[in-house]
Amino acid sequence: MPGRARPMTRRGHMAETAAETLTELPLQGLHGSLGAKFVPFAGYSMPVQYADGVMAEHLWTRGHAGLFDVSHMGQVLLPKGALGGLEALIPADLLGLPEGRQRYGMFTNDAGGVLDDLMVAHRAGDVFLVVNAARKAHDLAHLHAHLPGVEEVTDRALLALQGPEAEAALAGLLPGVAAMRFMDVAVMAWQGAELWLSRSGYTGEDGFEISVPVATAEGFARALLADDRVRPIGLGARDSLRLEAGLPLYGQEMDEAISPVEAGQGWAIGKARRAGGARAGGFPGADVILDHLANGAPRRRVGLRPEGRAPMRMGVPLFDGAEGGDPIGRITSGGFGPSVGAPIAIGLIDAAVAPGATLYGEVRGKRLPAAQVPLPFVPPGYKR
Amino acid sequence: MKYTEDHEWLEADGDIVTVGITEYAATQLGDVVFVELPEVETQVAKGDEIVVIESVKAASDIVAPIDGEIVEINEALVDNPALVNEDPTGEAWFFKIKIEDAAALDEFMTEDEYKDHIGE
Fold this sequence. Notes:
Chain A contains eight helices and 20 strands. By secondary structure, chain A is of the alpha+beta class. In chain A, strand 7 and strand 8 form a beta hairpin. Chain B has a six-stranded antiparallel sheet. In chain B, strands 4-6-7 form a three-stranded antiparallel sheet.
Protein backbone atom coordinates (compact mmCIF):
# COMPACT_ATOMS: atom_id res chain seq x y z
CA MET A 1 0.00 0.00 0.00
CA PRO A 2 1.25 3.50 -0.64
CA GLY A 3 2.46 5.18 2.51
CA ARG A 4 1.01 3.89 5.72
CA ALA A 5 -2.48 2.83 6.63
CA ARG A 6 -3.82 5.43 9.05
CA PRO A 7 -4.22 4.29 12.63
CA MET A 8 -7.96 4.82 12.39
CA THR A 9 -8.23 2.12 9.75
CA ARG A 10 -6.30 -0.44 11.76
CA ARG A 11 -9.33 -2.08 13.26
CA GLY A 12 -12.49 -3.95 12.36
CA HIS A 13 -12.20 -6.56 9.68
CA MET A 14 -9.18 -4.85 8.11
CA ALA A 15 -7.20 -4.98 11.32
CA GLU A 16 -3.94 -6.80 11.15
CA THR A 17 -3.37 -9.52 13.70
CA ALA A 18 0.16 -10.41 12.74
CA ALA A 19 1.47 -12.88 15.29
CA GLU A 20 -1.77 -14.84 15.45
CA THR A 21 -2.11 -18.34 14.07
CA LEU A 22 -4.95 -18.30 11.61
CA THR A 23 -7.49 -21.03 11.05
CA GLU A 24 -8.30 -21.77 7.43
CA LEU A 25 -11.87 -22.19 6.26
CA PRO A 26 -12.85 -25.60 4.86
CA LEU A 27 -13.19 -23.94 1.43
CA GLN A 28 -9.82 -22.13 1.51
CA GLY A 29 -8.66 -24.03 -1.60
CA LEU A 30 -11.77 -23.10 -3.55
CA HIS A 31 -11.41 -19.43 -2.56
CA GLY A 32 -7.78 -19.44 -3.66
CA SER A 33 -8.69 -20.95 -7.03
CA LEU A 34 -11.30 -18.18 -7.46
CA GLY A 35 -8.65 -15.47 -7.01
CA ALA A 36 -9.42 -14.55 -3.41
CA LYS A 37 -7.23 -12.23 -1.36
CA PHE A 38 -7.15 -13.26 2.26
CA VAL A 39 -7.13 -11.18 5.45
CA PRO A 40 -7.04 -12.21 9.08
CA PHE A 41 -10.41 -11.81 10.80
CA ALA A 42 -11.37 -13.15 14.23
CA GLY A 43 -8.59 -15.72 14.06
CA TYR A 44 -9.55 -16.94 10.59
CA SER A 45 -7.97 -16.43 7.21
CA MET A 46 -10.92 -14.97 5.32
CA PRO A 47 -11.42 -14.14 1.64
CA VAL A 48 -11.82 -10.34 1.71
CA GLN A 49 -12.40 -10.08 -2.02
CA TYR A 50 -12.08 -12.01 -5.26
CA ALA A 51 -10.81 -10.84 -8.64
CA ASP A 52 -13.82 -8.56 -9.27
CA GLY A 53 -13.10 -6.40 -6.20
CA VAL A 54 -15.30 -5.12 -3.40
CA MET A 55 -17.30 -2.60 -5.46
CA ALA A 56 -18.26 -5.03 -8.23
CA GLU A 57 -18.99 -7.82 -5.73
CA HIS A 58 -21.25 -5.55 -3.71
CA LEU A 59 -23.21 -4.44 -6.79
CA TRP A 60 -23.43 -8.02 -8.09
CA THR A 61 -25.05 -9.12 -4.84
CA ARG A 62 -27.63 -6.33 -5.01
CA GLY A 63 -28.47 -7.23 -8.62
CA HIS A 64 -28.02 -11.00 -8.79
CA ALA A 65 -26.77 -13.54 -6.23
CA GLY A 66 -23.60 -13.56 -4.16
CA LEU A 67 -22.12 -16.61 -2.45
CA PHE A 68 -20.40 -15.91 0.88
CA ASP A 69 -18.40 -18.33 3.00
CA VAL A 70 -19.28 -17.54 6.60
CA SER A 71 -17.94 -20.78 8.03
CA HIS A 72 -15.98 -18.77 10.60
CA MET A 73 -19.23 -18.10 12.44
CA GLY A 74 -20.15 -20.33 15.35
CA GLN A 75 -22.80 -23.00 14.91
CA VAL A 76 -24.24 -24.36 18.15
CA LEU A 77 -26.92 -26.95 18.94
CA LEU A 78 -29.02 -26.97 22.08
CA PRO A 79 -31.55 -29.58 23.20
CA LYS A 80 -35.17 -29.20 22.13
CA GLY A 81 -36.33 -27.72 25.43
CA ALA A 82 -33.66 -25.02 25.63
CA LEU A 83 -35.72 -22.02 24.51
CA GLY A 84 -36.99 -21.28 28.03
CA GLY A 85 -33.47 -21.42 29.45
CA LEU A 86 -32.20 -19.21 26.62
CA GLU A 87 -34.76 -16.56 27.58
CA ALA A 88 -32.77 -16.10 30.80
CA LEU A 89 -29.82 -14.93 28.64
CA ILE A 90 -31.56 -13.23 25.70
CA PRO A 91 -34.32 -10.57 25.84
CA ALA A 92 -36.23 -12.03 22.89
CA ASP A 93 -39.56 -13.83 22.89
CA LEU A 94 -38.10 -17.29 22.30
CA LEU A 95 -40.89 -19.37 23.87
CA GLY A 96 -43.14 -17.66 21.34
CA LEU A 97 -40.92 -18.70 18.44
CA PRO A 98 -42.80 -21.29 16.36
CA GLU A 99 -41.07 -24.44 15.20
CA GLY A 100 -39.56 -23.92 11.76
CA ARG A 101 -38.79 -20.26 12.45
CA GLN A 102 -35.67 -18.29 13.36
CA ARG A 103 -35.38 -15.12 15.43
CA TYR A 104 -32.67 -12.50 16.01
CA GLY A 105 -31.48 -12.05 19.59
CA MET A 106 -28.70 -10.69 21.77
CA PHE A 107 -26.91 -12.06 24.82
CA THR A 108 -27.00 -9.21 27.35
CA ASN A 109 -24.90 -8.49 30.44
CA ASP A 110 -25.87 -7.22 33.90
CA ALA A 111 -25.00 -3.64 32.89
CA GLY A 112 -27.53 -3.78 30.05
CA GLY A 113 -24.84 -4.09 27.40
CA VAL A 114 -24.57 -6.70 24.66
CA LEU A 115 -22.27 -9.74 24.81
CA ASP A 116 -23.05 -10.85 21.27
CA ASP A 117 -25.89 -10.98 18.79
CA LEU A 118 -27.08 -14.21 17.26
CA MET A 119 -29.75 -16.12 15.38
CA VAL A 120 -31.90 -18.66 17.22
CA ALA A 121 -33.69 -21.33 15.15
CA HIS A 122 -36.46 -23.48 16.61
CA ARG A 123 -36.11 -26.77 14.78
CA ALA A 124 -38.07 -30.02 14.98
CA GLY A 125 -35.59 -31.80 17.22
CA ASP A 126 -33.37 -29.10 18.68
CA VAL A 127 -32.44 -25.42 18.83
CA PHE A 128 -29.77 -24.14 16.43
CA LEU A 129 -27.76 -20.98 17.07
CA VAL A 130 -25.44 -19.01 14.80
CA VAL A 131 -23.08 -16.65 16.64
CA ASN A 132 -20.30 -14.26 15.64
CA ALA A 133 -16.84 -15.72 15.01
CA ALA A 134 -15.06 -13.26 17.29
CA ARG A 135 -17.42 -14.14 20.17
CA LYS A 136 -17.74 -17.87 19.58
CA ALA A 137 -15.49 -19.00 22.47
CA HIS A 138 -17.06 -16.44 24.79
CA ASP A 139 -20.61 -17.46 23.83
CA LEU A 140 -19.91 -21.15 24.26
CA ALA A 141 -18.53 -20.57 27.76
CA HIS A 142 -21.55 -18.39 28.56
CA LEU A 143 -23.97 -21.06 27.29
CA HIS A 144 -22.18 -23.90 29.08
CA ALA A 145 -22.33 -21.94 32.33
CA HIS A 146 -26.10 -21.60 32.12
CA LEU A 147 -27.55 -24.42 30.03
CA PRO A 148 -27.17 -28.20 29.73
CA GLY A 149 -26.48 -30.03 26.48
CA VAL A 150 -24.64 -27.25 24.63
CA GLU A 151 -22.86 -28.68 21.60
CA GLU A 152 -20.66 -26.78 19.15
CA VAL A 153 -21.08 -27.92 15.56
CA THR A 154 -17.56 -28.28 14.13
CA ASP A 155 -18.15 -30.49 11.08
CA ARG A 156 -20.20 -28.04 9.03
CA ALA A 157 -19.41 -25.13 6.77
CA LEU A 158 -21.80 -22.18 6.61
CA LEU A 159 -22.56 -20.53 3.29
CA ALA A 160 -24.79 -17.56 2.53
CA LEU A 161 -26.43 -16.99 -0.84
CA GLN A 162 -27.74 -13.45 -1.02
CA GLY A 163 -29.45 -11.28 -3.59
CA PRO A 164 -32.61 -10.99 -5.69
CA GLU A 165 -31.66 -14.05 -7.76
CA ALA A 166 -30.67 -16.19 -4.76
CA GLU A 167 -33.99 -18.03 -4.62
CA ALA A 168 -33.98 -18.91 -8.32
CA ALA A 169 -30.36 -20.05 -8.21
CA LEU A 170 -30.75 -22.13 -5.06
CA ALA A 171 -34.06 -23.61 -6.23
CA GLY A 172 -32.13 -25.13 -9.13
CA LEU A 173 -30.49 -27.42 -6.57
CA LEU A 174 -33.18 -27.44 -3.86
CA PRO A 175 -36.65 -26.76 -5.31
CA GLY A 176 -38.16 -26.64 -1.81
CA VAL A 177 -36.52 -23.33 -0.94
CA ALA A 178 -39.03 -21.35 -3.01
CA ALA A 179 -41.71 -22.11 -0.42
CA MET A 180 -39.67 -20.67 2.47
CA ARG A 181 -40.27 -17.13 3.63
CA PHE A 182 -38.04 -14.69 5.52
CA MET A 183 -36.69 -16.29 8.74
CA ASP A 184 -38.08 -19.76 7.99
CA VAL A 185 -35.70 -22.65 8.66
CA ALA A 186 -35.73 -26.07 7.00
CA VAL A 187 -33.69 -29.24 6.59
CA MET A 188 -33.19 -30.54 3.04
CA ALA A 189 -31.15 -33.26 1.40
CA TRP A 190 -28.65 -32.64 -1.40
CA GLN A 191 -26.65 -35.51 -2.86
CA GLY A 192 -27.14 -37.52 0.28
CA ALA A 193 -26.05 -34.74 2.62
CA GLU A 194 -28.30 -33.00 5.14
CA LEU A 195 -28.41 -29.23 4.64
CA TRP A 196 -29.74 -26.85 7.28
CA LEU A 197 -31.28 -23.77 5.68
CA SER A 198 -32.67 -20.47 6.84
CA ARG A 199 -34.12 -17.75 4.65
CA SER A 200 -32.04 -14.95 6.08
CA GLY A 201 -28.69 -13.25 5.80
CA TYR A 202 -26.91 -10.03 6.57
CA THR A 203 -26.91 -8.01 3.38
CA GLY A 204 -30.41 -6.50 3.34
CA GLU A 205 -31.25 -8.74 0.39
CA ASP A 206 -33.42 -11.80 0.17
CA GLY A 207 -31.33 -14.92 0.56
CA PHE A 208 -30.40 -18.01 2.47
CA GLU A 209 -27.84 -19.26 4.94
CA ILE A 210 -26.97 -22.89 4.42
CA SER A 211 -25.14 -25.12 6.88
CA VAL A 212 -23.43 -27.88 4.90
CA PRO A 213 -21.37 -30.87 6.11
CA VAL A 214 -17.71 -30.04 5.46
CA ALA A 215 -17.30 -33.05 3.17
CA THR A 216 -20.09 -31.75 0.90
CA ALA A 217 -19.37 -28.02 1.14
CA GLU A 218 -17.04 -27.63 -1.83
CA GLY A 219 -19.28 -29.66 -4.15
CA PHE A 220 -22.29 -27.65 -3.07
CA ALA A 221 -20.49 -24.32 -3.46
CA ARG A 222 -19.24 -25.31 -6.91
CA ALA A 223 -22.75 -26.37 -7.92
CA LEU A 224 -24.03 -22.91 -6.94
CA LEU A 225 -21.13 -21.13 -8.66
CA ALA A 226 -21.87 -23.08 -11.87
CA ASP A 227 -25.00 -20.92 -12.14
CA ASP A 228 -24.21 -17.72 -14.07
CA ARG A 229 -26.28 -15.71 -11.61
CA VAL A 230 -23.97 -16.64 -8.71
CA ARG A 231 -20.55 -15.15 -8.00
CA PRO A 232 -18.29 -15.49 -4.97
CA ILE A 233 -18.32 -12.46 -2.66
CA GLY A 234 -15.76 -11.62 0.01
CA LEU A 235 -15.81 -10.16 3.49
CA GLY A 236 -15.21 -6.63 2.15
CA ALA A 237 -18.52 -6.51 0.29
CA ARG A 238 -20.25 -8.34 3.13
CA ASP A 239 -19.35 -5.37 5.33
CA SER A 240 -20.44 -2.68 2.85
CA LEU A 241 -23.70 -4.57 2.15
CA ARG A 242 -24.59 -4.88 5.83
CA LEU A 243 -23.69 -1.22 6.41
CA GLU A 244 -26.00 -0.06 3.61
CA ALA A 245 -28.68 -2.34 5.04
CA GLY A 246 -28.28 -0.57 8.41
CA LEU A 247 -27.48 -3.86 10.13
CA PRO A 248 -25.37 -3.65 13.29
CA LEU A 249 -22.01 -5.37 13.63
CA TYR A 250 -21.00 -6.67 17.02
CA GLY A 251 -17.96 -4.79 18.31
CA GLN A 252 -18.97 -1.66 16.36
CA GLU A 253 -22.66 -0.76 16.72
CA MET A 254 -22.95 -2.76 19.93
CA ASP A 255 -20.71 -4.01 22.63
CA GLU A 256 -20.70 -4.63 26.35
CA ALA A 257 -21.13 -0.91 27.05
CA ILE A 258 -23.92 -0.20 24.54
CA SER A 259 -27.49 -1.28 25.30
CA PRO A 260 -29.69 -2.94 22.65
CA VAL A 261 -31.94 0.14 22.72
CA GLU A 262 -29.00 2.50 22.13
CA ALA A 263 -27.89 0.26 19.26
CA GLY A 264 -31.31 0.61 17.63
CA GLN A 265 -32.12 -3.05 18.32
CA GLY A 266 -34.99 -2.47 20.75
CA TRP A 267 -37.31 -4.07 18.17
CA ALA A 268 -35.67 -7.43 18.96
CA ILE A 269 -36.96 -7.31 22.54
CA GLY A 270 -40.28 -9.11 22.26
CA LYS A 271 -43.49 -7.73 23.76
CA ALA A 272 -43.61 -10.71 26.16
CA ARG A 273 -40.25 -9.67 27.63
CA ARG A 274 -41.11 -5.99 28.08
CA ALA A 275 -42.76 -4.27 31.03
CA GLY A 276 -46.30 -5.61 31.30
CA GLY A 277 -45.50 -8.62 29.11
CA ALA A 278 -46.21 -12.26 30.04
CA ARG A 279 -42.53 -12.90 30.84
CA ALA A 280 -41.30 -9.37 31.43
CA GLY A 281 -37.61 -9.03 32.29
CA GLY A 282 -35.74 -12.04 33.60
CA PHE A 283 -32.68 -11.48 31.42
CA PRO A 284 -29.31 -9.92 32.36
CA GLY A 285 -29.48 -6.13 32.56
CA ALA A 286 -33.28 -6.11 32.35
CA ASP A 287 -33.56 -3.15 34.74
CA VAL A 288 -31.35 -0.97 32.52
CA ILE A 289 -32.72 -2.16 29.19
CA LEU A 290 -36.40 -1.93 30.17
CA ASP A 291 -35.72 1.55 31.54
CA HIS A 292 -34.16 2.52 28.21
CA LEU A 293 -37.27 1.22 26.41
CA ALA A 294 -39.68 3.03 28.74
CA ASN A 295 -37.89 6.31 29.37
CA GLY A 296 -35.43 6.62 26.51
CA ALA A 297 -31.75 5.71 26.38
CA PRO A 298 -28.93 8.23 26.93
CA ARG A 299 -27.59 7.61 23.44
CA ARG A 300 -29.11 6.72 20.11
CA ARG A 301 -27.99 5.18 16.85
CA VAL A 302 -28.12 7.45 13.82
CA GLY A 303 -27.68 7.02 10.06
CA LEU A 304 -25.36 9.61 8.51
CA ARG A 305 -24.72 10.86 4.99
CA PRO A 306 -21.48 12.87 4.87
CA GLU A 307 -21.91 15.80 2.48
CA GLY A 308 -18.66 15.47 0.55
CA ARG A 309 -16.86 12.45 -0.80
CA ALA A 310 -14.71 11.77 2.25
CA PRO A 311 -15.76 8.59 4.09
CA MET A 312 -16.18 8.88 7.86
CA ARG A 313 -14.94 5.65 9.31
CA MET A 314 -15.28 3.94 12.67
CA GLY A 315 -13.98 6.05 15.55
CA VAL A 316 -14.42 9.46 13.89
CA PRO A 317 -15.67 11.82 16.62
CA LEU A 318 -18.97 13.62 15.99
CA PHE A 319 -19.83 17.18 16.98
CA ASP A 320 -23.03 19.22 16.79
CA GLY A 321 -21.24 22.32 15.56
CA ALA A 322 -18.63 23.24 12.97
CA GLU A 323 -16.37 24.62 15.70
CA GLY A 324 -15.72 24.12 19.40
CA GLY A 325 -17.62 21.99 21.88
CA ASP A 326 -17.10 18.45 23.03
CA PRO A 327 -17.90 15.40 20.91
CA ILE A 328 -21.55 14.32 21.07
CA GLY A 329 -20.78 10.85 19.76
CA ARG A 330 -18.75 8.85 17.30
CA ILE A 331 -18.97 6.88 14.07
CA THR A 332 -19.42 3.16 14.79
CA SER A 333 -19.27 2.01 11.15
CA GLY A 334 -18.60 4.04 8.06
CA GLY A 335 -17.31 3.85 4.56
CA PHE A 336 -18.46 4.08 0.99
CA GLY A 337 -21.82 2.64 -0.01
CA PRO A 338 -21.44 1.27 -3.53
CA SER A 339 -25.21 1.11 -4.16
CA VAL A 340 -25.73 4.55 -2.60
CA GLY A 341 -22.77 5.89 -4.58
CA ALA A 342 -21.58 8.02 -1.68
CA PRO A 343 -20.11 7.78 1.79
CA ILE A 344 -22.44 6.44 4.47
CA ALA A 345 -22.05 5.87 8.19
CA ILE A 346 -23.75 4.76 11.37
CA GLY A 347 -23.08 6.73 14.54
CA LEU A 348 -23.85 6.54 18.24
CA ILE A 349 -24.74 9.98 19.63
CA ASP A 350 -26.17 11.67 22.70
CA ALA A 351 -29.94 11.24 22.63
CA ALA A 352 -30.35 14.96 23.38
CA VAL A 353 -29.02 15.98 19.94
CA ALA A 354 -31.88 17.33 17.80
CA PRO A 355 -32.96 14.73 15.21
CA GLY A 356 -32.68 17.07 12.22
CA ALA A 357 -29.44 18.76 13.22
CA THR A 358 -26.43 18.65 10.92
CA LEU A 359 -23.59 16.78 12.60
CA TYR A 360 -19.88 17.19 11.95
CA GLY A 361 -17.36 14.39 11.79
CA GLU A 362 -13.77 15.34 12.51
CA VAL A 363 -11.71 13.74 9.75
CA ARG A 364 -7.97 14.46 9.69
CA GLY A 365 -8.46 17.54 11.85
CA LYS A 366 -11.27 19.00 9.75
CA ARG A 367 -14.93 19.07 10.70
CA LEU A 368 -17.01 17.84 7.78
CA PRO A 369 -20.82 18.08 7.75
CA ALA A 370 -23.07 15.01 7.68
CA ALA A 371 -26.85 14.82 7.56
CA GLN A 372 -28.83 12.56 9.87
CA VAL A 373 -30.82 10.15 7.72
CA PRO A 374 -33.12 7.19 8.39
CA LEU A 375 -31.71 3.66 8.23
CA PRO A 376 -31.40 1.56 6.14
CA PHE A 377 -29.65 3.32 3.26
CA VAL A 378 -31.14 0.89 0.75
CA PRO A 379 -34.63 -0.68 0.84
CA PRO A 380 -34.58 -4.28 2.12
CA GLY A 381 -35.41 -7.12 -0.27
CA TYR A 382 -36.64 -9.67 2.28
CA LYS A 383 -39.40 -12.10 1.16
CA ARG A 384 -41.74 -11.84 4.12
CA MET B 1 10.31 6.26 -14.65
CA LYS B 2 11.55 5.70 -11.09
CA TYR B 3 9.84 3.92 -8.22
CA THR B 4 9.71 4.19 -4.43
CA GLU B 5 9.33 1.47 -1.83
CA ASP B 6 5.94 3.03 -1.07
CA HIS B 7 4.77 2.07 -4.59
CA GLU B 8 4.89 5.55 -6.07
CA TRP B 9 6.18 6.25 -9.58
CA LEU B 10 8.15 9.39 -10.43
CA GLU B 11 8.59 10.82 -13.90
CA ALA B 12 11.06 13.72 -14.18
CA ASP B 13 10.91 16.48 -16.76
CA GLY B 14 13.77 18.84 -15.91
CA ASP B 15 13.20 19.89 -12.30
CA ILE B 16 9.47 19.00 -12.35
CA VAL B 17 8.63 15.50 -11.14
CA THR B 18 5.19 13.96 -11.72
CA VAL B 19 4.12 11.49 -9.02
CA GLY B 20 1.50 8.75 -9.04
CA ILE B 21 0.99 5.26 -7.65
CA THR B 22 1.82 2.01 -9.41
CA GLU B 23 -0.59 -0.47 -10.93
CA TYR B 24 0.39 -2.84 -8.15
CA ALA B 25 -0.55 -0.30 -5.47
CA ALA B 26 -3.85 0.55 -7.17
CA THR B 27 -4.76 -3.13 -7.30
CA GLN B 28 -3.83 -3.62 -3.65
CA LEU B 29 -5.91 -0.61 -2.60
CA GLY B 30 -8.98 -1.74 -4.46
CA ASP B 31 -11.70 0.60 -5.68
CA VAL B 32 -10.66 4.15 -4.86
CA VAL B 33 -13.58 6.33 -3.72
CA PHE B 34 -11.89 9.45 -2.34
CA VAL B 35 -8.74 11.44 -3.03
CA GLU B 36 -7.56 14.51 -1.10
CA LEU B 37 -4.67 16.41 -2.67
CA PRO B 38 -2.23 18.96 -1.22
CA GLU B 39 -2.51 22.64 -2.12
CA VAL B 40 -0.43 24.08 -4.90
CA GLU B 41 2.61 26.06 -3.70
CA THR B 42 2.94 23.89 -0.58
CA GLN B 43 6.53 23.19 0.41
CA VAL B 44 6.83 19.53 1.31
CA ALA B 45 9.55 17.41 2.84
CA LYS B 46 10.27 13.83 1.98
CA GLY B 47 8.02 11.56 4.09
CA ASP B 48 5.26 14.15 4.63
CA GLU B 49 1.78 12.64 4.26
CA ILE B 50 0.41 14.87 1.53
CA VAL B 51 -2.30 12.83 -0.22
CA VAL B 52 -5.13 10.89 1.37
CA ILE B 53 -6.50 8.08 -0.71
CA GLU B 54 -9.45 5.99 0.41
CA SER B 55 -10.75 2.80 -1.09
CA VAL B 56 -13.97 1.03 -0.16
CA LYS B 57 -11.82 -0.89 2.30
CA ALA B 58 -9.52 1.60 4.01
CA ALA B 59 -7.74 4.94 4.11
CA SER B 60 -4.08 5.29 3.17
CA ASP B 61 -1.62 8.13 2.75
CA ILE B 62 0.74 8.96 -0.04
CA VAL B 63 3.91 10.53 1.24
CA ALA B 64 6.06 13.10 -0.51
CA PRO B 65 8.84 11.01 -2.09
CA ILE B 66 11.22 13.94 -2.15
CA ASP B 67 11.68 17.52 -0.89
CA GLY B 68 10.21 20.27 -3.05
CA GLU B 69 7.28 22.52 -3.89
CA ILE B 70 3.91 21.28 -5.17
CA VAL B 71 3.38 23.10 -8.47
CA GLU B 72 0.37 21.31 -9.89
CA ILE B 73 -2.29 18.84 -8.68
CA ASN B 74 -4.60 16.56 -10.65
CA GLU B 75 -8.05 17.92 -9.80
CA ALA B 76 -9.66 15.28 -12.04
CA LEU B 77 -8.98 12.70 -9.31
CA VAL B 78 -11.09 14.60 -6.80
CA ASP B 79 -14.15 14.41 -9.06
CA ASN B 80 -13.40 10.93 -10.38
CA PRO B 81 -11.37 8.90 -7.86
CA ALA B 82 -11.96 5.72 -9.90
CA LEU B 83 -9.38 7.04 -12.39
CA VAL B 84 -6.75 5.75 -9.96
CA ASN B 85 -7.86 2.19 -10.72
CA GLU B 86 -8.46 2.80 -14.41
CA ASP B 87 -5.16 4.41 -15.37
CA PRO B 88 -2.81 4.63 -12.39
CA THR B 89 0.37 5.27 -14.37
CA GLY B 90 -1.20 7.66 -16.87
CA GLU B 91 -4.18 9.98 -16.35
CA ALA B 92 -4.25 9.35 -12.61
CA TRP B 93 -1.08 11.20 -11.66
CA PHE B 94 -1.46 12.90 -8.28
CA PHE B 95 0.80 15.94 -8.20
CA LYS B 96 3.81 17.61 -9.77
CA ILE B 97 6.63 18.66 -7.52
CA LYS B 98 9.46 21.06 -8.29
CA ILE B 99 12.73 19.79 -6.90
CA GLU B 100 16.02 21.55 -6.18
CA ASP B 101 18.32 18.75 -7.07
CA ALA B 102 17.56 16.35 -9.90
CA ALA B 103 20.25 13.99 -8.56
CA ALA B 104 17.90 13.24 -5.65
CA LEU B 105 16.04 10.91 -8.02
CA ASP B 106 19.02 8.59 -8.29
CA GLU B 107 18.21 6.85 -5.02
CA PHE B 108 14.92 5.46 -6.34
CA MET B 109 14.39 2.10 -7.98
CA THR B 110 14.42 1.38 -11.67
CA GLU B 111 11.53 -0.53 -13.18
CA ASP B 112 13.44 -3.82 -12.92
CA GLU B 113 14.36 -3.15 -9.30
CA TYR B 114 10.74 -2.28 -8.52
CA LYS B 115 9.50 -5.48 -10.12
CA ASP B 116 11.90 -7.40 -7.88
CA HIS B 117 10.60 -5.39 -4.92
CA ILE B 118 6.99 -6.50 -5.51
CA GLY B 119 8.04 -10.01 -6.39
CA GLU B 120 7.07 -10.02 -10.06
